[in-house]
Amino acid sequence: MKKNLLIFLNLFLICPYILFAQSEDPTWYNDQDFDGYFISKVKQPNSPGAGWAVLGQVVVDQITNQNKEYIPIKSGDCAPQDATKWQSVTLYLDVDGDGFFGTAQSVCVGLAIPAGFSQTKNDCNDGNASKWKYEILYRDNDGDGFFGTPENKCIGNEIPGGYRAVSNDCDDNNPLIGSGIKWFRPCPCYGFGCATGGRDTLSLNCDDLSYLGLIRINDGPCTSKRKHVGSTIQSINGFSISPNPATTEIRITAGDAIAERVQITVTDQYGRVVKAIQVPQLYRAQVMTVNTNSLSSGYYYVTMKYGVKIETKKVAIKL
After folding, report:
1. Contact at 8 Å (CB) between 163 and 270?
2. Distance CA 91, CA 118 (A)
3. Which of 174, 168, 170, 167 is nearest to 144 (CA)?
4. What is the pLDDT along the chain (319 residues), one digit of tens a residue?
5. Alpha carbon separation from 70 to 32, 58, 82, 271 (Å, rounded)
6. pTM value?
7. How many CB atoms lie within 10 A of CB 29?
8. Long-range contacts made by residues 208-217, C-beta under 8 angstroms, separation at least 24?
9. Closest CA to 106 of 123, 124, 93, 121
10. Among 12, 62, 72, 307, which one is most buried in terms of CB atoms within 10 A?
């Protein structure tokens, strides 16, 4: 009697769980193209209609047209009727037709990226076909004609006016300190833009520093005191330019004689060489004429260099 009662009690306790497990409704997935990416799901005993499936149900693959067992993957199908597309991603268009992509757009895709789009943004101004890349350029902050303040600019093949690709002013907040070698930093040192006094930060010969715009106050090693004289200092030989401003030509007159090869270049405000002359040597007061008819109006820089000596002067053309 007791044994039968225990059996009855166990069945009474277990049966509700058995009945509940047997009566649990399956989960139906609203996946019209049966690609595994569904719109919604619901639990109920019967199918809600066409385009719904349960896990393991045999359905037709819309791409291969073969039977397969349905496996739900993820909710949020952006193209419920197209099995080749299921996810929304951000792609980039080329609006200005320059071959670079910069305009973001949300696109429904599958495994392939549609034509006319790129996964990567590589155009900083997709509304202007002449600009597409960022580059660090330098502007003249103190108005002394030399460039030392960096700025990240969106450009194309041309460097915009008022900028140049290379810095040539190590103190662009002081118009009295002009061109120089920017590697003479940090202070104290004797390069352009650096403080008076102290000692040289580079192991250069004292005479080699003279072309940087430095003069020796007294003789002695490179640790002797010097005076910074800004951009107006002449190099050892010196040269002059006339006329300035010029129109059709400029005449470059040498200072001291130079018994070695001399290179003379004319560069534009972007640092591009537009004229170049090489002579085996120079006589004192020798004059060299450079035709400027082909040059556009603007400011140019004439540089004379020989050995480790260098000097640059600014000239206005057709202004």
Report:
1. yes
2. 6
3. 174
4. 554 554 455 555 555 544 444 568 999 999 999 999 999 999 999 999 999 999 999 999 988 999 999 999 999 999 999 999 999 999 999 999 999 999 999 999 998 999 999 999 999 999 999 999 999 899 988 887 788 889 999 999 988 988 988 887 777 877 665 544 332 333 333 333 333 333 333 333 333 333 333 333 233 332 322 333 333 333 445 788 999 899 999 999 888 788 888 888 999 888 888 998 888 888 888 888 899 999 999 999 998 888 778 888 899 998 8
5. 12, 6, 16, 66
6. 0.49
7. 24
8. 208/308, 210/235, 210/236, 210/309, 211/235, 211/236, 211/308, 211/309, 211/310, 211/311, 212/180, 212/181, 212/184, 213/178, 213/180, 214/190
9. 93
10. 72
Non-local (6+) Cβ contacts of 96 within 8 A are 123, 125, 126, 127, 128, 129
Cα–Cα distance, 56 to 33 (Å, whole number): 15
**252 by DSSP, 3-state: which?**
strand
Beta strands (DSSP E) in 100-209 are 103-109, 117-118, 133-139, 149-155, 163-164
Enter the tokens of residue 304: 């004379």
For residues 167 and 180, is the Cβ–Cβ distance under 8 A? no
Kindly report whether the peptide bond that precedes residue 243 is cis, defined as omega within 30 degrees of 0.
yes
As a whole number of angstroms, the distance between CA 251 and CA 300 comes to 14
Q: Which of 278, 241, 273 is nearest to 262 (CA)?
A: 278
Three-class HEC string of 204-227: CCCHHHHHHCEEECCCCCCCCCEE
